[in-house]
Amino acid sequence: MSDPVPLTTDHPGQVASATPPAPGRSRHLSDRWLAVAFISPALLLLLAMSVFPLLWALYLSFTDYSATRGGPAHFIWFGNYTAILASAQVHLRALTTLIYVVGAVALQTALGFSIAYLISRRTHGRGLLTTLFLVPMMLSPVVVGLFWRFMLDAQFGVINSMLGSLGLGQVEWLTRQRTALISLIVVDTWQWTPFIMLIALAGLTAVPKYLYEAASIDRASEWFRFRTITLPLVWPLLLIAVLFRAIEAFRLFDLVYILTSGGPGVSTETLSFHVYKVAFLGFNTGTASAYGILMVLVVIVLTQLYLRYLNKLKED
Amino acid sequence: MPYPKRIGPGRKVRLATAAMLVATTMAACGQDDSANSSAPKAPATIPELTKDPLTLSFIWFDWPPAHALEAFANAEYTKERPNVTIKVKTVPNANWHDAMFTQFAAHKTDFDIPILDSQHIGEAVTNGNILDITDFVKKNIDVKAYNPYLLAAYGQYPQAETGKRDENASLYGLPLLGDTWTMIYRKDLIGDKPPQTWDEMISVAEKCQADHPGVSGLAFHQANGSDAAAVTYNTVNGIYGGNLWDAKTRKIEGVLNDAAGQEAMDVLVNKMKPLTAKGSGNWFIDEVNAAVAQGKACIAFNWIAASGGLLDPKQSTLGTTREQILDKLGFATLPSGKTNLVPLGGMGMHVSAYSPKANQAEALNFMKWFERADIQKKWAAAGGVPSRTDALASPEFLNAGPFNQVYADSVPRMRDMWNVPEYARLVDIENTNVNAALNGAKKPKDALDDIAREQQSVLDSSGRKGGGGL
């Protein structure tokens, strides 16, 4: 007499694959093949739309290929990579992008968390307030860029009109070096602060109430409660939101394209905007591919460092 | 607790997948090896045209002449070819080059007739994107009916010398819409007589601005998108006797930034810019028109083909009728300086090398029809700017708009930019640097020297290994 099949196992996956096919199913169609059949359309789509273009871009990045000039792609190995890394033009765009990412994400985090904290303390109308705050995030960046461009117009814009009514002078928001970058940061902050707010609000509402009750019994001050209960519990979640926003801000293109076209001069040209110019103005496909790959690598490395910090934080 | 054993595709399956991806990639990359890199030839005689319904598609940027062309062609061309519908596809001006050339790159276009800026010709010809129509023109077009430079500017490659045409050079397009800058001035503020010289124009604008608070002395293109700021500098450069390059030796450094070029940049940044409205550093066609229509500028410069809306009382605060507006607005040719050069605008029509044969035949037939003397006059009456000399002198054209005489007078004075394959990068370098100088992000001399150095590097970079386009 054979041993009975155990009801539980340490290898659940193996049990699943050993399960005989249901009645009516082909004997050859095991659960494993059925699983493969179900995931293969998504897998093929992923291969066609993401993996293949990435591999192709990787191949092109080692060549002098141009999409419009045609002809064979000649291998130049790391020629594109060394040229990009040594280019003063690229260094300038990297600095602009860094200032933008740090400025925008820091402002959004401070504002987003503050708004979430204030909303979380309300008992009435919290849902309505949250929904209203989320509206900017639901708009297309192109639409946001266009109406902010009108609002920031030095001659006809509503912002300067309001400043004028307060007795202040006109500001050239989009055509001066400093104000143009600040304007980009402000517009991005207007649109994406709700994202940070939403994540922070989720974290804040998940903080167990009994901790606050215990702190109240101990007559802890508001600031003490915030510093020792709220912030440590919300911080890891907030950092994830910051990570998402930093990656998004790093590849900013649309707002720059609509609001400043990278100007004045190239002072608001971000790395993504520069890649666009390399790719489509001269159709230097090989260089643009290398540029894109390098940007992906930067994001991956920074994300890994960030995630390690986040894990360390959780362990602590 | 031990971890469950990982279930997934075996090593062989993973290797096979990777090999398949690499093979597919290599196969895809090799597909262009046989790509033709020179423009294919159009037949000298128009092939037999189809009797089936056919849509002839153009691509242009979104502005009034594009809509005028579609309406005109559907009204007139269909009288002779009732089975044909004309569709003018439009894209935003800033995307115009990209919209055409990304489709060219795919070797498949959803348009039959790309309307190229004159400077795009080199890139399109070198890449084999448009048909060589030299034989077609010889057999079907009366070339003597045109000012030679207009015919050359919108179709010839390699580029013609300014004001001339090389009869032995190949032609790749025919004129569709002529254009140049007009000076728009406020007759009620500076008088009926327009300034005749560039220096006089600046001093008149200065006085007008001082006498009329809230109205700026000048309005012109300064944006860093498209070719806005670049055309402005090139215009002033020409007037002060400068040159954009030496076409024969392909030299820009030392030519563009010579003494004349420096003087032009100095005049533009230090004399003209202070007379413009605050925050006008990103103005292009629409913003300049808005300033004029709202009575906020004494003197403005804009393309003639984009000036029609200024006479529309619905869009203007200068009057409730066209006549009232014309009492206040005058249109004149550009003032002269050391030379009387004006910028060549407008576009030519070309035939996509990737269009189906039936559509290419129809496109050639349309071009032949469009360049007929009677059709050119009708196009003028419909609001277009023709290129045939007889049409330019016709009452249909001269009476169609107050700025048309300006165009007719400007034709012998025109100068174009470079139409080399590197045009898109050259113009971007010039645009961003002139825009930087106009908005205080760079000193004028530094900006001009940077333009010359960077443009020269683009022209010299053909043998460079890696980093092209940076």
TrEMBL record, chain A:
Keyword Isomerase: no
Domain ABC transmembrane type-1: 94-306
Domain of life of the source: Bacteria
Membrane topology (UniProt): Multi-pass membrane protein
Coiled coil: none
Protein name per the record: Sugar ABC transporter permease
Cellular compartment(s): Cell membrane; Membrane
Principal subcellular localisation of the protein: membrane
SUPFAM superfamilies: MalF N-terminal region-like, MetI-like
A Pfam family hit: BPD_transp_1
InterPro entries documented for this protein: MalF_N, MetI-like, MetI-like_sf, Sugar_ABC_transporter
UniProt keyword terms in alphabetical order: Membrane, Transmembrane, Transmembrane helix, Transport
